[in-house]
Design brief:
About 5% of the residues lie in helices and about 50% in strands. The chain is mainly beta.
Length: about 160
Amino acid sequence: MKLAWIAAAGVAGVIALAATSATQVSVAATSRPPCVPKVSDNAVDYCGPATAAVKVGRKTYNFKGGYCTVNPKAKIPIQLEIGVISRPGGSSVNGGKPLFQLSELEADGLTIATVTADWSGKQLESVGTVALKGSIPSAGTFTSKGPSSRFSGSWNCHGVVVTAP
């Protein structure tokens, strides 16, 4: 199934375990996405108004083209995918396409937030645990929590937050 690898990639963002604190706010959410991502045999090209920025060292990488999702039943306060996710394979990371993923999961009193980011065939961060601040899920900032990687950034849903069924 061509969507199996896509689902696996999204789930990878919530595997790492670390506690985080985030301010939860209620937002007006919609059950209809603003657009339909383009799905091919080789990639999913996300769409929508959401943006994100990742700062690694002195360099900032800007991402656009995605939308935010919440899933109260699954205890997912925010999930955001921006850019393109390519089928595994090839010589460059994510087929050289930009990809930003932010997920937060609540389970058994523990809150786990992660960021994954690829840019021009380079992996900026792979499932890095983060601390979130801001108006979750609408917009906010994140800071890495891992000792081996240092990055920070922000995201903005630009008024579109989709509630999963």
